Amino acid sequence: MEIALVVMGGVIVLTLIAVVGDVIGKTVKGRSSAGPKAMQDLARRVEALERLSQDKEERIRSLEADVAFANRLLEDKPLK
To answer: Lower CB density within 10 Å: C or N end of the chain?
Structure first.
């Protein structure tokens, strides 16, 4: 009986240590190690990439319109 209590107590203690260690580990990982300057730099980079993406989309739309216009011109010409 005493051996069972010792074994169960050991299991409970080991479980508590594991849970506490896990909570502490997640808390440490959860803290942001990046400073506000790094966050502002990343925000600026994201904005620049968004602007670049919009510019490329506008160019693609323009090219599609030009190709559509050229196709209409070619389709209207009769074959010789």
So the answer is: C
How far apart, in whole angstroms, are the C-alpha atoms of residue 54 and residue 48?
Answer: 10
Torsion of Cα atoms, 71 then 72 then 78 then 80, to 10°: -20
Q: Give the dihedral of Cα atoms 75, 69, 65, 63; nearest 10 deg.
A: 90
**Percent above pLDDT 70 for the chain:** 90
Structure tokens at 34: 């990046």
pLDDT band at residue 74 under the 50/70/90 scheme: confident
Which residues make Cβ contacts (< 8 Å) with residue 71, sequence separation at least 6?
none
Say how far apart CA 45 and CA 65 lie, in whole Å: 30
Range 1-16 average pLDDT: 91
CA 23 to chain centre: 24
Report CA torsion sign: 8, 12, 15, 17: negative
